[in-house]
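Hi P.,

Sorry for the delay on this. The queue was packed all week, but I finally got your sequence through. Input first:
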Amino acid sequence: MLICKVRGKCVATIKNEKITGISFVILTRLNGSEGELLVAADPIGCHKGAIVLVVSGSAARLALNRTDAPIDLCVTAIVDNEESLVYD
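Then the structure:
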């Protein structure tokens, strides 16, 4: 699981039929490779600046209930209080 910050929306009008109807967000990691831009499915509707928890791989597809979708990252939660995160 990754801790990321939402940088904005990623609009894709033409996409694989198995991901039609799914919104995407642009993220940067807060734990690990900071500065790297990531794109994740966003089934919960997070906003720019939100700190979110993200799953990857098959867990991302399971989070969407779309096991055959070409998805590698998925937002699964919005962190309520950034101060509650422990960085060690």
